[in-house]
Amino acid sequence: MIRAARGTYDILPRDSGLWHAIESHMREVFASYAFSEIRTPIFEATELFVRSVGTDTDIVSKEMYTFIDKDETTSLTLRPEGTAPVVRSFIENHLADESRMAKLFYMGPMFRRERPQKGRFRQFCQAGAEVFSLTDNPAIEAEVVEMLMVLFGRLGVSNLDLLVNSIGCQDCRPAFVERLKGEIEAKASSLCGDCRRRGQANPLRVFDCKVPSCQDLIAALPAITDSLCNTCRDHFAKFCGYLDDRKIAYRIEKRMVRGLDYYMRTTIEIVSGDLGAQDTLVGGGRYDGLFEDLDGPPMKGFGFAMGLERLILAIPEPEKLFAGPGPDYFLATIGDEAFTYATLLAQKLRSRNRVVYLDFDARSLKSQMRLAGKLAAKKVIIMGEDETRSGKLTVRDMNSREQKEMTAEEFFRAVDAVDRGADPDLAEKL
User: In 88-237, where do the E strands start and end?
Assistant: First the structure.
């Protein structure tokens, strides 16, 4: 038997309703903040991620799925993250000419060859949002955080911590990085191999290390928050002030950096106290220099990304988010004449946007009712030869077990009354 590739999984029909519900909540919340959806290809030129994410990051050096196209000259990569493709599309399609600010969101599969763990897969679904503008106003950052908190509230996700930091800019970070490199070199013999390598190539990445034996040494390293220039310090203070105004609780995490090279100034993480070791739900930050790095206009950027698989694990009662996948009506028939009539009834119901299941296997009525229960049908319409000739239907509510008999004309009059929001007495018959 052929199985799904390691680090991938199937979303089965019994689960897809939950995914649709979460995505629907996201779209509604994002739209309320004037974000529009963008969809980019799942593979891009490898150079896009090398130039944006950074050659010394784990993503580029260890995790990307990269291959040479059949022309034997073009290197392509399955996208490991969403920001760089969105920026590439923004530049390529000259969206800066359309507005001084673009607020974009995306949802879709990403790919990283990591060790599969709970809530972490090699193909995973990620949602994110980006704000591109001519200003680096920290109020933008606070509004995005507010939007995330509204979303989590709608999904019932609690026990969250918002972690914030500033990692400086091109004016204050280089001097700090040199100082950090010296500190790491002095401790190199006690650090893991990855830390020694990162300490030379990209010292900030040392703060990402999860090796237990390195943690005490890393905790003793200087924090960039203490070396910010006045502009970065003022920017971060205003961001925190906007969070205070919104009564959004946060914790300054002085050694928190993001795993991608394009970040600068404000960085954020939202972690869940209910997820154990893999507790990060959201990661994001500001990346003002990325546009110029990709040969684009001098735009500013701020955004975030979250993995939906891990988000689902943090939702305490996911079944409350959607009514379930069951059909609105299950048509149970007895006899050929009733079945033929039911096919026309199903057509009329579907034209009214009702979900209808019609049994094609000529089972007994008892077997059909059992199947309707298994499918979680909301109502069953029972039709036999006698009902077909008389033009009547028996409608059974699967929750209350109440049955009502009515003509097809009465039934559709009641269906249409529900759609119009009129005549509640007729609607009660359904």
Answer: 101-111, 123-133, 160-166
